[in-house]
Amino acid sequence: RSVYDGEEHGRFMEKLEARIRNHDREIEKMCNFHYQGFVDSITELLKVRGEAQKLKNQVTDTNRKLQNEGKELILAMEELRQCRLQQRNISATVDKLTLCLPVLEMYSKLREQMKSKRHYPALKTLEHLEHTFLPQVSHYRFCKVMVDNIPRLRQEIRELSMSDLKDFLESIRKHSDRIGETAMKQAQQQRNLDNIVSQQPRISGGKKSKKEFSASSELEVKNTSPMSEQDSGILDVEDEDEEEEVPGAQDLVDFSPVYRCLHIYSVLGARETFESYYRKQRRKQARLVLQPPSNMHETLDGYRKYFNQIVGFFVVEDHILHTTQGLVNRAYIDELWEMALSKTIAALRTHSSYCSDPSLVLDLKNLIVLFADTLQGYGFPVNQLFDMLLEIQEQYSETLLKKWAGVFRTILDSDNYSPIPVSDEEVYRKIVGQFPFQDAELEKQPFPKKFPFSEFVPKVYSQIKEFIYACLKFSEDLHLSSTEVDDMIRKSTNLLLTRTLSNCLQNVIKRKNVGLTELVQIIINTTHLEKSCKFLEEFITNITNVLPETVHTTKLYGTTTFKDARHAAEEEIYTNLNQKIDQFLQLADYDWMAPEPGSRASDYLVDLIGFLRSTFTVFTHLPPSVAFCAGVPDECPFVLQGKVAQTACMSACKHLSTSLLQLLLEAEVRQLTLGALHQFNLDVEECEQFARSGPVPGFQGDTLQLAFIDLRQV
């Protein structure tokens, strides 16, 4: 390195060549020294070559002979070597096949299990294959193929089990109504059984109670392995007679697909994924189930199918809750139920508002009670449903009022407003049985005889009782106290009396073609109905077992209703009399310029006084509180209180006096003769004579004559 780094290359080369020349001289000296020995050695080697050639020929000849002699032996040895090699290969093959055959058998078993949809056993087989068998033969190519296929097989098992779960979810979605129908039938049977037991506590046996059903269902669930290899779906159950045992709701469903899929995902470490998917899908199904059909309100079957689907959904979820660990929890169930409860109540409020048939509303109420009792049996809170039923009760009451308004109108329109004639004891007792009427004087009279009221009195009374029964039907199974039921019935009955019946009576009274006979008969009828209100009070007390003296008990307002109707009828009587008077006065034709008066009162006034006299004279022939109306057919007797007759008579006289005064003071009468005034005076004297004659008893002194005093003074 120092030579290359320095500048002495020439010098180094000179020294090197000098050194080479020294070595060449030394080699030349040595060769010259050993030359003779070299020549001798060459001579000896030539001799050795001749001998070696001879030896080679001998060896070649010996080898030829040996080869000829050993050919057969070589063939035999080669055959022996091949046999030994085959034997060794066979032994090795047997050993390797002994290791490979279980792997192949296990893989074949895996494919068979997957083909038969036995996914959970297939997953277990795959686990054994991967961790136990394949490591022993991992160096073979087919094993490497199997190892590469294991993730794909796991994914395939996962997808197939998920497919079974989807089929199961679709199946229970389609069959939710059948599951719910079965559960509600079971609840109905249990309620009937409870009623029978409560009525006949000594009777034992019969059908299984709900607890027994639950116990048997749980036992069946425990005996059913989640690893069941049956297909998913709903088990077919044929329709059974009503007398036969209704199968438990869980007995209709094969839950093994859920169990299998849950275990498979748990083994694969994807349990949370499975739980999330299951809950998400069931929430979607819940929203579909809770969406009511648009025409649900038209028939009871629409409501029944809607309730069946909801019950079926929650029966399945309740069963999943109690037979799996953590797939669904109580918080998830409660959340679903809260959503279902709010949507169900909203749907029922909307659709029930369209119901105008009280029978349909009552059937709907019974269906809601059964729906609530069924779900309550599975541990779901249903207080809001019963609160909503109280809202529907108000609607039910409104539909009843509309229905009974039509019933009352029919009764009032078809009535002849004449006292009911009875020809024998049987008819008499029948009417007395319908309406609480007692009259010792009437009972003593011989047949035929007449009740003072017309047919609409017992009919209206009976219909009021029917209305009370209809209200009572709705209160059944609502878990209300006797006081609450009593209050509900009394409030509805008050609405019937003060609004519905009152309006119907007012409409009859205000009809244009109603006559005095009908009006007075209405007064008589309402008087008897007013007296019957205490019997209605007793009737309600008997069916609710709540005494009227109880605090906060609502009183019936029937008395006010019938009094108002009676007053309206009285006012209508006064109006009708005045209208009749006006009709007579329209016939008045005074000649205010007549030179001489006539010999007697005007003809129209004589006829008017005759009408009034015939109308009121008959009152004098009756007891103080009873009168018969004249001026109408004789076969139409009716009762009228004396005060009404007096008021009617006074009203008629005042109206007659005012009308005559208006005739005299009309603006068109600009002058009149003394003869015309005398004629008018004769008419006034006729009126005063009528007043003095006392057409209606009970007036004191000249009270009735005072009605004409202003006219007399003018």
TrEMBL record:
<dbReference type="InterPro" id="IPR048359">
    <property type="entry name" value="EXOC6_Sec15_N"/>
</dbReference>
<dbReference type="GO" id="GO:0090522">
    <property type="term" value="P:vesicle tethering involved in exocytosis"/>
</dbReference>
<protein>
    <submittedName>
        <fullName>EXC6B protein</fullName>
    </submittedName>
</protein>
<dbReference type="InterPro" id="IPR046361">
    <property type="entry name" value="EXOC6/Sec15_C"/>
</dbReference>
<feature type="domain" description="Exocyst complex subunit EXOC6/Sec15 C-terminal">
    <location>
        <begin position="640"/>
        <end position="714"/>
    </location>
</feature>
<keyword id="KW-0268">Exocytosis</keyword>
<comment type="similarity">
    <text>Belongs to the SEC15 family.</text>
</comment>
<feature type="domain" description="Exocyst complex component EXOC6/Sec15 N-terminal">
    <location>
        <begin position="15"/>
        <end position="184"/>
    </location>
</feature>
<keyword id="KW-0813">Transport</keyword>
<feature type="coiled-coil region">
    <location>
        <begin position="13"/>
        <end position="83"/>
    </location>
</feature>
<dbReference type="InterPro" id="IPR007225">
    <property type="entry name" value="EXOC6/Sec15"/>
</dbReference>
<feature type="region of interest" description="Disordered">
    <location>
        <begin position="187"/>
        <end position="233"/>
    </location>
</feature>
<feature type="domain" description="Exocyst complex subunit EXOC6/Sec15 C-terminal">
    <location>
        <begin position="384"/>
        <end position="627"/>
    </location>
</feature>
<feature type="compositionally biased region" description="Polar residues">
    <location>
        <begin position="222"/>
        <end position="231"/>
    </location>
</feature>
<dbReference type="Pfam" id="PF20651">
    <property type="entry name" value="EXOC6_Sec15_N"/>
</dbReference>
<dbReference type="GO" id="GO:0000145">
    <property type="term" value="C:exocyst"/>
</dbReference>
<feature type="compositionally biased region" description="Polar residues">
    <location>
        <begin position="187"/>
        <end position="202"/>
    </location>
</feature>
<dbReference type="InterPro" id="IPR042044">
    <property type="entry name" value="EXOC6PINT-1/Sec15/Tip20_C_dom2"/>
</dbReference>
<dbReference type="GO" id="GO:0006886">
    <property type="term" value="P:intracellular protein transport"/>
</dbReference>
<dbReference type="InterPro" id="IPR042045">
    <property type="entry name" value="EXOC6/Sec15_C_dom1"/>
</dbReference>
<dbReference type="GO" id="GO:0006893">
    <property type="term" value="P:Golgi to plasma membrane transport"/>
</dbReference>
<keyword id="KW-0175">Coiled coil</keyword>
<dbReference type="GO" id="GO:0005886">
    <property type="term" value="C:plasma membrane"/>
</dbReference>
<dbReference type="Pfam" id="PF04091">
    <property type="entry name" value="Sec15_C"/>
</dbReference>
